[in-house]
Specification:
The structure is a single chain. By secondary structure, the protein is α/β, with parallel strands linked by helices. The protein is about 45% helix and about 15% strand. The chain contains 10 helices and 6 strands, in the order βαααααβαβαβαβαβα. A 6-stranded parallel beta sheet has the order 3-2-1-4-5-6, sandwiched between helices. α1 crosses α2. The longest helix is centred in the N-terminal third of the chain and has 14 residues. It is globular and about 50 Å long. The two termini are about 15 Å apart. The model has no long low-confidence stretch (mean pLDDT about 95).
Length: about 220
Amino acid sequence: MERAAVFDVDGTLVDTNHLHVVTWWEAFRQAGHDVPMHAVHRAVGLGSTDLIAHLLGDDRDREQDAALSAAHTALYGQYFDRLPALPGAGELLRRLHGDGWTVVLATSASGAELGALRRAIGADDAIAGTASAEDVREGKPAPEPVEHALELAGVPASRAVFVGDTVWDMRAGSKAGVRCVGLLCGGIPRADLAEAGAEAVYADPADLLARLAGSPLA
């Protein structure tokens, strides 16, 4: 039977979380909001609207949301040509593909941003599909991105593993009924990932690849 390895991208396969922190911080600053960087970091992994709501609250001026998101996109877009893949990212995806896993990405990125991330990973030959922000109504921590990835792979939740770097990833995967693996390379503590549903936690893609035989992806 087929089995699916579903991967988050930002902070999991590409080293972008802190770029998101700085560019969201600057977008908020330009709009007159003083949002601490540590708070932004903990919100990275949410879709744009959810991130803004999480940081500014439901009583914010929602008419600013589109401008804030556009400012972040413009600031972050300056890095598209030099986004750095995390150690072992492409190798891990190709190894899993070679081992018979259907590899699918589940990410809040879309359009040019998603293209830049895939170029950074450099393993399109191993990626069977992508569940992007354009494909779902609700982003993580809702299960819909992971569930859509499973639909693309044609695999039930019982035959899938989701790899991510944030508590939002672990919560989404747990709600979708898949086994969850956490990576520390996004900057979230091991205990937080485990509490949110991670069955196992590794340093980065290279560490997971090196210890693949004893992992949920064995």
